[in-house]
Amino acid sequence: MKHFLNGCLAGIAISIGGTVFLMSDSKLAGALLFSVGLFAVCVFGFSLFTGKVCYAFDNDAKYALSLPVIWLGNLVGALVMGFIQMPTRLYPTLLEKAKTVCEGKLSQGLLSAFLLAVLCDVMIYIAVEGYKAIPHEAGKYLAILFGVTVFVLCGFEHCVANMYYFTVGKAWSAKAALYILVMTLGNALGGVSIPLLRKAAARFN
Predict the structure, then answer these.
(1) Mean pLDDT of 104-124
(2) Which of 32, 46, 173, 182 is the most buried (most CB within 10 A)?
């Protein structure tokens, strides 16, 4: 239950980032402000699948088994945020912009979605590990800012953000669910790739 509830909170936090991205007239400003989601996750200790999966091989089986629960919590948080916003005055703008975003995501091939998701979690790892490892306060927050801004501006695929976009854009379908699963697998591979390569490189020291 702890993992699930913290996952819900992370889903809500990322959805807030998605909201400000959709509401921003400037793509750059939206990408920069999207980082509020990962900022909240890191500072308050929420459980975000795309961040937690990076450390799957550093922990035991119990940790690995918590990842699907966290993912489900992220989904519920994204759904809640999307439904909460539908009766508000923001929704017409959110719907219009989210539809465009969703059309772009669902018009690409599955291989494209998978590879862009891999690249997304490489940036998430840089952001999260930077926050954990950099000793200086300014550096910690710059890691989050740069990591998130880059993946958003590049158009990389973040499965939790897309859960929110598909909800607010009323784009959920069997195809959308398939794409979320493919993006989840891509995020997982991207998240563990850099830690595993770092470990392999360390053996040659």
Answers:
(1) 97
(2) 46
Inter-residue contact 18 to 37 (CB < 8 Å): yes
Question: What is the residue range of 128's domain?
Answer: 2-202
Residue 32 and residue 10: Cα distance in Å, rounded? 18
The phi-psi region of residue 45 (left if phi > 0; otherwise alpha if psi is between -120 and 50; otherwise beta) is: left
How many domains, in total, are found in the chain?
Answer: 1
- Supply 102's token pair: 């969703």
More confident residue, 99 or 199: 99
CB 40 within 8 A of CB 19: no
Residue type, 159: C
pLDDT tens, 20-32? 999 999 999 999 9
Q: Note whether 120 and 186 are within 8 A (CB).
A: yes
pLDDT interval class at 198 (50, 70, 90): confident
**Mean pLDDT throughout 147-171?**
97
Q: Give the separation between CA 144 and CA 32, rounded to whole angstroms.
A: 10
Single out the residue of 144, 157, 155 nearest to residue 183, CA to CA.
157
Residue 85: which CATH number?
1.20.1080.10
**Other beta carbons within 10 Å of 13:** 25
Whole-structure pTM value: 0.94
